[in-house]
Amino acid sequence: LKPCHSRPDCCLRFSPALRLRRRSRGVASPGLGSLLLQWSRGAAMAAKIVPAHTVPGHDWPSRLDLTTLMEEQTMEELQKITQGGGVRKLCEMLGSDAEQGLPNPVTDFDARKKQYGENKFEERKLTPYWKYVCEQLKEKIIILLLFMATTELVVKSIWGKNQDEKTEAIAESSVLYLTVCIIVNVAAFLDWKRERMFEALTKRLALTNKRFIIRGGKQMEVTDEDICVGDIMSFNAHMASIISCDGIFLSGKDVKTDESALTGEPEPIAKDLDHPFMISGTTVNVGNGTMLVVAVGDYCIAGKIKKSVYGQGEAEMSPLYSKLDTMANNIGKVGICGASIAFIAMCIWTFGVHKRDAAELLDIFLVTLGVLACAIPEGLPLALVIALALTSNKMTGENNLVKTLNSCETMGSATTICTDKTGTLTTNRMTVRGAMVVGHDIEIPVGATVGGALKSDLRISADTKDLLANMCCVCTMDESGIRYDEGSSVPIFQGNPTECALLKMAEEMGFDYQAIRNAVPGRSASTLDSGSAKVFSSARKMMSWTVLRPQGGYRVYAKGASEIILGRCTQVIKGDATIPLDDAETKRIFDNVISKFANNAMRTIGLAYKDMEDLNPDEMHGTVVNSDGSPAYACETGLTLVGVVGIEDPLRPEVAPAISKCYKAGIDVRMVTGDNLQTAIAIAKGAGILDLSLHCDANGQVRPKRAMEGREFRKYVHDTDAQGEPVFNQAKFDEIWPYLRVLARSSPDDKLTLAKGLNGSQIFKDAAKCAELARDDNIIVFPDRQVVAMTGDGTNDAPALKASDVGFAMGIAGTQIAKDAANIILLDDNFASIVVAAKWGRNVFDSIQKFLQFQLTVNCAILTINVICAVADKKSPLTVLHLLWLNLIMDSAAAIALASEPPTDQLLERPPVNRNDSIVTARMLLNIVGMAIYEVGLTCWLLWDYEWIPDLQANADDPVTGAKSRHYTMLFNTFVLLQVFNEYNSRFLRGEWQIWRGLSQNPLYMFISVGTMIIQIIMVQLAAPIMSYPLKIHPDGLTVEQWFICLGFAAGTLVVQQCMNIAFAMVKKVTKA
Predict the structure, then answer these.
(1) What is the pTM of this model?
(2) Region label for 507, one of left (φ > 0), alpha (ψ between -120 and 50) or beta (otherwise)
(3) Cα angle vertex 527, ends 521, 528, to 5°?
(4) Measured between alpha carbons, how far is 927 from 93 in angstroms, rounded to an integer?
(5) What's the pLDDT at 659?
C-alpha cells in the first residue's frame, strides 16, 4: 500500500504489485475480501480495531457481522446474517425502513455510535512540541552555537586567567544557551502551530462535505459525522457521488461506481440487488439510488485502510519558496566569504602582528560564528512560511478556505480568472420569472408568481396543469427539495437550485412534490426499479425520468436546456391539441419565447414528455446525437413540448465592482457557463465582463470572437487527425483567446481546453502581435505566460481545476470531487471572494519583498562592519551575542511583523506579479544599498570619532572605548535602533511618503515593534548590571542624553529613505524625458 496524495478523501491507493482482482458476477473476490478480513481479525494489528460491543436492549447485528459482510462481499454472507431475508430484512434488523429510513430524530443515535462507531476517522496523533524542539536542535548553526557556548564555558572556567574572565565565560555561555533556547523555541512553535492549523483546516473541510440521507421519510442534508449505521443514504452521479461509508444497495437504476482507487479495476462496476456492496471511498459514475449504511468511520473499508497506513504527503515546494531558498544559499556563500576574510584578518593581526597566545582563538572564532549566524539569512524561507500561514488564516475569514498554502502565493500572479456564472456571479437563488405553456404566454400580475399565475389561468386545463406539475416533481433528483424552518414562511432550498425553482413553481400551483413522487409508479421509493432515471449530464444537457402509466406503457418526462429539448421534440401542445412541431413553429418559439427570456438574463428550461408502450432505457438513437457528439438515448427523442420556463438568477450586487477591480489590476475575467449564448451575454454585460465600449459595436452588438458557444469554440481550436479524432491546435487557440470573454453552452472539456491553452500560449513573445492587439482592440497581453484561476462545482470540472494554476471549488454547490481537486474552496460561492484571494496573493509577494528589503540591509551592514573592523584591527562593537540578538529580530520578529501587514486596495491598481521577474527590484536594491551605506558609515564614524560624545565615563575607572564602555554600548544600541526604525521604511517598496499609513490597522506590527524597543531598553538599562559581562555593555547603561543621540541617528533612517525616494523619482523623471 502506498499513500495517495492526489486525493485528499482517499488516503491510499493499491500499488501495482498488490492490484486486486475484481470478482466476476456472483463470485467473491479473494483479494480485497481476504486482505481486509485478515486486517480485521488480527493479521494486521496496526489497524487496532476495538472489539465489537453489543448494546443492551437492542437486538441489532453485531459490528463484526457487518464488517465481515463488507469484507467478504458475498450474497451468501448477507443471507446468513438475515437468515435469507436479504437487504430489506437487514433494514428491519437495524431498526430502519427501506423507504422511510430511521425515525427523525434518531433517539438511539448514541447507542448506535457505541455499537458501530462514529462516522469519522480516528484523529491522527499530532507531533508533540518536544519533537519539534529536537528537530531544531539538529540545525547546523544551533549545533555550532551550543558547541561554542560549551567550549567557552569549559575552557575559560578551567583555564581562565583570572576570576573575572571565568565569571565572564559563565555569563556569556549562559546567555548563549538562553539565546539558542529562544531561537529553537520560536522556530519549533511556528512548526507546531502550522501543523495544528492544517489539522483545523482538515476539520473545516469535513464540514463542507454534505451527504443526503432519509429520516422519517424526508430527505435531509447532513455532514458525515451525522450518519450512523441503519441510515438510508441516497446518492447520484451529479451532486452526491462520493460514498463515504460502507453500504448495501437498496434501490436505483443504471448505477455504476468507480472502485479503481481501491481495487485498480479501471472499468466502472455495476451495482444492483445482485451486486449490492457499496464500498466507502468510491464514487458513483452513473445513475442514482439509495443504500443501507452498515459500516462507518474506522470500521468501514476506507477507514480500516486509512487507520492501517496513515499517509501524509510531503508539501510541494513553491516557486517562490525555491527562489528564496536559493537566494538564502547564495547570500550565505557571500556571508561565509566575508566571515572567512574577517577570521583570517583577525588571526593575522592577533597572532602575526601582536603575537598573542592561542587562547585568543576562541574569541575570534566566536565573533566569526556570530557573523555567520547573521550573514546566512535562514529567515527567508521562514518568512514565506509565516506569510503564507498568516494569509491563509486571514483568507478563511474572508470565505476562502485554503487547502494548499502555495496557492495563496500563486494568486498574486493570476492574469486570468475563468468563472462559472450560476452561484458565482449570480445569487444561486433561482426563481421562475416567465413561462410559455401549451402555446400561451403566461401573464404575471404585479406581486404574483408564475406558479400562482398558472394556477389561476383559465386557458390551461386541469389535465395540463397536472402534467406540468408531474414533470417538475418527477423529473428532479431526490436531493432537490424545499423545507421550511418552524414558524417561518421563507423556503429553504436543498440540492439543485434550478430544480428547486421548478418544485417551488409546482408548490405555488397547489401541488405537493413529495406526494407526487410517492404516488407515481416508477418514481416512488418502493417502485423505483420499475422506472428509469437518466440524470443530468453536461454531454446531454438534459435529464429524463421514465415512469409507468396507469393505463399501461411508459411515460418519459424530460427537462433540460430549452434549445436542446426543442431540438428533440417532434410535437408541441397548443391549447388542448397536440400538433406537429414544424420549422415555423420552432422558429416562433425560439424567437418569441427563448430569445425573449434569454435577453432578460433568464435561464431557459424546456419541459417535454413522451409516451411509449415498451421501454429499452439503454437503446441509442441511430441519428440523433448529444451536444458532445455522442449518441442520444432513444427514449429522449421524439418528445412532445409542453412549455418553456424562464428562470432568473439575479446578479450578485458585489460582482460588478469586483470585476471592475480585476480589469484595473490587469486580470482578465472570462465567463464559462452552460447557459445559452443570449443569457450569458446579458449576464456578462450586467457584470461588466463585456464592456460596451471595448467588446460591443455602436449598436450594442457583441463583436466577433468576444462571445461564442462551446460547439463553435471546439470546432475552431481543434483539428482532426487521420482517425477522425480532434487534436488541439495551439496556434488557432491563440487567434481567439485574447478576445474571448464569454463561452456559453460549454462543457467541462472546454474548461480544460481553456486552462491548458492559456497556460501553453506563447503569444506574449510575439511583439508585433501584442502591439497589434493593443493598437486595434485595446487588448493588453501580459508579458509572460498566463496564470489561470478556474472555478468549478461539478465532478467533471475536476480535471480543469487540477490543470489550472489555482482551482476554486464551490463550498456550497460544489461536489466533493471538485473540492478535492481544488486549491481553494469558496465558502460563499461568490466571485468577489476570488478577487479577495488575488489581493491577498499579491500581499504575500509584497510581504516577502518587504522582509527581503529589511533583512538584506542588515546582512550587508553587519558583514561590511565586521570585515572593516577585522581588516583595520579594530575591536568590533558587535559581539557574538549582539549579532544573535539581531538575528533573532531578523528571523522571527521582523518576519511576523512584516508578514502581518494587511492588503490594501492599492494592490489591485497595478499589473500582476511577473513570475520571472527578480524578487529584488531596482527600487529595493537602491533602498538596501543606500540604507546599508548610511548604517555602515554612521557606525564607522562613531567607532573612530567618539570624543565628542558626552558622559563617556561614569567614573574615572570606566574605559572610554572598547568592551563594556559606554562608547561600545552606544554603538550596539544605535545599530539595533537603526533596524527598528528601518523596519518602518521596509513596510513600503515603491517610494511611498507616508510610512505611518496603515499602522492603526495592524496592531500585531505595533506590538512587535514596541515590544522590541522595550526589550532593548530593558537590556541596555535595567538588566545592564547583570548582562554587562555577557553582552559587553556598560553596567550603568546609557544616559538620557546618549539615548537621545542614539534615537536621533536611528530616526535618520527615515530621512535617508525620503532622500532616496526623491533621488529615485528625479532619475526616473529624467530617464522618461
Answers:
(1) 0.73
(2) alpha
(3) 100
(4) 77
(5) 94
- With H, G, I as helix, E, B as strand and everything else as coil, classify residue 349: helix
CA distance 602 to 600: 6
**Sequence-ordered list of residues with C-beta below 8 angstroms from that of 509, at least 6 positions apart, any chain:** 451, 452, 454, 455, 465, 468, 469
C-alpha torsion sign, points 559, 562, 563, 567: positive
Active-site residue identified among 254, 420, 478, 750: 420
Residues with Cβ within 8 Å of 52's Cβ and at least 6 positions away in sequence, in order, are 62, 63, 64, 115
Residues near 891 by beta carbon (within 8 Å), at least 6 away in sequence: 183, 186, 378, 379, 382
Copy the grid coordinates of residue 959.
574605559
**CB 695 within 8 Å of CB 702:** yes
- The confidence score (pLDDT) of residue 249 equals 94
Taking alpha carbons only, the member of 1052, 1024, 1053 closest to residue 1038 is: 1024
Give the model's pLDDT for residue 883: 77
**Residue 441 falls in the annotated catalytic set:** no
pLDDT of residue 970: 95
How remote is the C-alpha of 887 from its chain's centroid? 34
CB–CB of 652/622 below 8 Å? no
Distance CA 793, CA 796 (A): 8
User: What does the alpha-carbon distance between residue 710 and residue 707 come to, in Å, rounded to a whole number?
Assistant: 10
**Cα gap 32→21, rounded to integer Å:** 8
Extract the runs of DSSP E, i.e. beta strands, from 259-328: 269-271, 277-278, 283-295
Q: Do the beta carbons of residue 450 and residue 472 sit within 8 Å?
A: no
**Hunting for cell 547564495 — which residue is that?**
330
Regions of the chain with pLDDT less than 50: 1-54, 57, 309-316
Q: What cell numbers appear for 672 in the block? A: 464559462
CB 502 within 8 A of CB 559: yes
Helices vs strands, H then E, count in the chain = 38, 32
417 contacts 670 by C-beta, under 8 angstroms: yes
The cell for 841 is: 496573493
Rounded to the nearest angstrom, the gap between the alpha carbon of residue 1009 and the centroid of all alpha carbons in its chain is: 32
Q: What is the DSSP string of 638-699?
A: SEEEEEEEEEE-PBPTTHHHHHHHHHHTT-EEEEE-SS-HHHHHHHHHHHTSS-HHHHB-TT
Q: Which of 1016, 934, 933 lies closest to 970 in space, CA to CA? A: 1016
* CA-derived radius of gyration, the chain: 36
The per-residue pLDDT for 1073 is 66
Do 698 and 708 contact (CB within 8 A), yes or no?
no
Report the 3 state secondary structure along 60-127: CCCHHHHHHHHHHCCHHHHHHHHCCCHHHHHHHHCCCCCCCCECCCCCCHHHHHHHHCCCCCCCCCCC
Q: Which residues make beta-bridge pairs with 793? A: none
- pLDDT tens column, 454-475: 999 999 999 999 999 999 999 9
User: In the prediction, which pLDDT does 917 show?
Assistant: 76
CA dist 989 and 1006 (Å) reads 19
Evaluate whether 548 touches 527 at the Cβ level (below 8 Å). Answer: yes
